[in-house]
């Protein structure tokens, strides 16, 4: 059940100051970056169009997933292993964006960003299913690229309060319970037997 912004802000009143600060910053900035570090303007346009089809969002609550993916492109998220023969995540994503452009040209003789939504979805579906055409897909698995891109993007989406509200998630569980975590606090807590009362 969806949570309204008013209700969500009511939950925030019970959080510690640091948790509130982080969540408010995410709400205000939406993962936007002043400058992308890893993507050219052309790559960013293709990525934005692809992610808009992969993870549809309401315009008034749009999270900048391009900014999020840019910020974590060379960071391991989720599984840390890499399939034999597959490049690093950053290289895989760059190659995959070239592959999206090639497949759009092969299928519709047009750039991916110029396609209508149904055509873009057809391109992405062929990539997801492993039937996409284009020289890039001779070098890398289109399915592995799709999974990796989706994993990075959905991590950002699910880490944002707008998504929490849509899912009915009221925010961090018991954030006040983390306030005591200091070195002396950890040592003091470890001296207690399991099941000890914190209050």
Feature tags:
mainly alpha; single chain; 199 residues
The whole-number mean of residue pLDDT values reads: 87
Structural class: mainly alpha
Unreliable spans are: 193-199
| Number of structurally distinct domains | 1
Distance between the termini: 32 Å
**SSE run:** HHHHHHHHHH
Percent helix, as a range, is 55-70%
Please provide the count of β strands: 0
Total number of helices: 10
Proportion of residues in extended strands = under 5%
Radius of gyration: 21 Å
Taken from the alpha-carbon principal axes, the silhouette is globular
The major sheet is characterized as:
none
Structure write-up:
The protein is mainly α and 199 residues long. The protein has one domain. 56% of the residues lie in helices and 0% in strands. The chain has helices spanning 5-12, 17-29, 41-54, 65-72, 89-108, 117-129, 136-139, 142-158, 161-167, 183-190. The radius of gyration is 21 Å and the shape is globular. The relative contact order is 0.16. The model is unreliable at 193-199 (pLDDT under 50).
Summarize the structure.
The protein has 199 residues and is mainly alpha-helical. It has helices at 5-12, 17-29, 41-54, 65-72, 89-108, 117-129, 136-139, 142-158, 161-167, 183-190.
Blueprint of the fold:
Elements: H1 5-12, H2 17-29, H3 41-54, H4 65-72, H5 89-108, H6 117-129, H7 136-139, H8 142-158, H9 161-167, H10 183-190
Helix pairs in contact: 3-6, 4-8, 5-6, 5-8, 6-8
């Amino acid at each position: 059940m969806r949570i309204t912004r008013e209700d969500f802000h009511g939950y925030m009143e019970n959080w510690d100051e640091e948790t509130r600060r982080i969540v408010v910053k995410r709400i205000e900035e939406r993962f936007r970056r002043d400058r992308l570090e890893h993507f050219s303007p052309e790559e960013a346009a293709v990525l934005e169009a692809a992610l808009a089809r992969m993870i549809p969002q309401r315009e008034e609550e749009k999270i900048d997933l391009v900014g999020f993916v840019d910020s974590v492109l060379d960071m391991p998220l989720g599984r840390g292993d890499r399939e034999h023969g597959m490049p690093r995540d950053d290289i895989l994503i760059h190659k995959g964006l070239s592959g999206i452009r090639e497949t759009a040209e092969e299928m519709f003789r047009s750039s991916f960003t110029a396609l209508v939504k149904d055509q873009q979805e057809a391109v992405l579906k062929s990539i997801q299913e492993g039937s996409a055409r284009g020289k890039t897909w001779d070098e890398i698995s289109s399915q592995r690229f799709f999974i990796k891109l989706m994993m990075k993007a959905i991590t950002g989406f699910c880490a944002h309060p707008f998504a929490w509200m849509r899912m009915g998630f009221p925010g961090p569980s018991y954030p006040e319970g983390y306030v005591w975590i200091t070195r002396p606090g950890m040592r003091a807590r470890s001296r207690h037997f399991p099941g000890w009362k914190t209050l």
